[in-house]
């Protein structure tokens, strides 16, 4: 298991266990955003597809307050964020996974200090099927046996047919069609560790450039099954309960993400270049203040994700002030 991702999961669980809930009503100390004068300029965002919709929502509301601000958003995958920040071609790097040690080293060599990583939302990687598919749920071993050629999580044999998941009707006589993310995606990397025990994907997994593409493919394929960011869920798909055994299947809900029982929960990040000896530029600072405000976190919830617990949110705000 990769050290950087294993560490990220431990940090994630630690933060989850100390939270008291996602609802902003439970965290009245989260400040509202107050508009400031003289905010103008351009923000360039390069990174996660998972955060693409959120970045769009945040930027639209921010521009409604500051018409002189422009955004350029490129959502080509989490792996594109660190080099763009290192080389100065991006202001902000959205990521759905932790930074790798090699990415941090490259940034430090260039700038002399590490990048600043802000937790801005919570998400879960869901396993989706077409909404009418009756499969009850999946064990962790079955998830690995479906997607992995190495089966490091303990599966005895690969799962390729619906009858291996208990569906014996003629309606599900065709092989399972698998969908997932491409290798530059943070969702791909994190799922590889969390669900495949750091094993290798089967070559039958159709790799798609975005979570929206995965969800659409599953929704329009009776035999489809795929993993993607839960925030992209539509009415055409159903997120399967996941557990160690069939008797302990865990549905994906706000509560199960909050109490860390759903296996594939995660934070979403914005990474920035902040010198330890200098204040952030006004535009960048105000945008991050908005993201980490009550209004910014309400946008998180509207987009289908989970807002950051209040105590964590306030720590993120102190990092940029």
TrEMBL record:
Keyword Signal applies: yes
Record's subcellular location: Periplasm; Secreted
Q: Name one Pfam family in it.
A: PBP_like_2
Q: Where is the PBP domain?
A: 38-295
InterPro entries cross-referenced by the UniProt entry: PBP_domain, Phos-bd, Phosphate_ABC_transporter
UniProtKB keywords:
Periplasm, Phosphate transport, Secreted, Signal, Transport
Q: Which first-to-last residue range defines the signal peptide?
A: 1-25
Q: Which GO terms describe its biological process?
A: cell adhesion; phosphate ion transport
Give a GO molecular function annotation for the protein. phosphate ion binding
Any one cellular-component term (Gene Ontology): periplasmic space
The entry sums up its family as follows:
Belongs to the PstS family.
Sum up the protein's function in the record's words. Involved in the system for phosphate transport across the cytoplasmic membrane.
Protein name stated in the entry? Phosphate-binding protein
């Amino acid at each position: 298991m990769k050290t950087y991702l294993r560490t990220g999961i431990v940090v994630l669980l630690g933060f989850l266990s100390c939270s008291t809930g996602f609802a902003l009503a439970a965290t009245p100390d989260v400040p509202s955003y107050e508009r400031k004068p003289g905010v103008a300029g351009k923000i360039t965002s390069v990174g996660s597809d998972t955060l693409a919709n959120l970045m769009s929502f945040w930027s639209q509301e921010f521009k409604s307050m500051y018409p002189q601000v422009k955004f350029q958003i490129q959502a080509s995958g989490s792996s594109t964020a660190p080099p763009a920040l290192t080389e100065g071609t991006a202001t902000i790097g959205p990521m759905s996974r932790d930074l790798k040690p090699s990415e941090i080293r490259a940034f430090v060599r260039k700038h002399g200090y590490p990048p600043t990583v802000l937790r801005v939302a919570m998400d879960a990687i869901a396993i989706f099927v077409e909404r009418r598919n009756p499969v009850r749920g999946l064990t962790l071993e079955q998830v690995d046996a479906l997607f992995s050629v190495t089966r490091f999580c303990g599966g005895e044999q690969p799962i390729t047919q619906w009858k291996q998941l208990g569906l014996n009707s003629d309606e599900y006589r065709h092989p399972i069609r698998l969908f997932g993310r491409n290798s530059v995606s943070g969702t791909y990397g994190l799922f590889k560790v969390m669900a495949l025990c750091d094993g290798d994907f089967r070559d039958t997994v159709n790799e798609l450039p975005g979570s929206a593409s995965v969800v659409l493919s599953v929704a329009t394929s009776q035999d489809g099954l795929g993993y993607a960011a839960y925030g992209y869920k539509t009415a055409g798909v159903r997120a399967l309960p996941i557990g160690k055994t069939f008797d302990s299947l865990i549905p994906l809900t706000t509560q199960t993400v909050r109490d860390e029982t759903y296996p594939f929960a995660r934070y979403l990040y914005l990474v920035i270049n902040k010198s330890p000896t200098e204040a952030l530029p006004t535009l960048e600072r105000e945008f991050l203040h908005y993201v980490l405000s009550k209004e910014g976190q309400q946008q998180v919830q509207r987009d289908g994700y989970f807002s950051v617990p209040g105590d964590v949110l306030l720590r993120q705000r102190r990092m940029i002030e």
